[in-house]
Amino acid sequence: MFHYLHMVYQILREPGLAKTKRHVEEKTGKPMRSLINTGNSLPDNARIFVGSLPELDFPLKSHPRIVPCGPIISEASPISESDPKLASWLNNGPTIYVNLGSLFKLKEDRAVQLAKGLNMAIDQLERKTPDGPYMQVLWKLKKDGHYDATGPKSRIRAAFDDKMDSDRVRIVDWLDSPPLAVLQGGNIACSVHHGGASSYNEAILAGVPHVVLPFWTDCYEYANRVEFLGIGRRGARKHQPVFEATELSEVVVEVINGKQSQTMKQRSLELARLCKQNGSGPEIAAQGIVKLATEGAVVAAKGTPQ
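and the corresponding structure tokens:
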């Protein structure tokens, strides 16, 4: 909450905002619209298309202008088509998918903590089911700084014991398949992500439980949504936004094979089915925009002011 208030304060105090406002109004003769006042100056027929559904959010009242479309995420070809080799590897066992988004980069010390936490979780899960199946990790890592994540002397490799040697842990900086294709591959046990909107919605569409490691602003909102909806847990609560190996491992184990894990999986699948029944979010938004544009063109052709 403090972060949001500080952000609004900074926007209002931004020295360039007043200068920009004067320039726009001098050149156009019209008042400049900003994020602060846009909502109060919209035409009567304006609509706000949002990439969500009431069932995917907190129980709040919705404004009549808002059109819930469902997750607005590009559809993905099956991973068996986009990356057959990775699809084959994923079929080897239940896989923890780690993707902390496109913006956040991990320094080596934090990456090592994450690796230790995942390794501890795998060991605990396999002690519960000694006859298998064996767990895997697919980690899309964006590094902050220059360090070795996969080489024989890597601290991260050492944190996974011998699991990288046996190809049970794969760490990459790029995947040919989009996240949705990976998640919909059918063998992802949970998605470890940062709480970004896309990561949240991709796991929702795939029906995969979440472990959220929030870093800033809306990431915490999505972490709270996950827990409110009963589809996962926040992975770093004690020292947030810094995560610690032991706490992370406990949360991953809880989500994959804890007392509430089956309920989380079932609820995740229910929300995925709900989104499928609702229809494609991008198509709903596009059709709504085309409809408004068509109506506006008809009115303009008649010369009738809106």
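(Above: one complete record from the training split.) The two ends are 39 Å apart (CA to CA).
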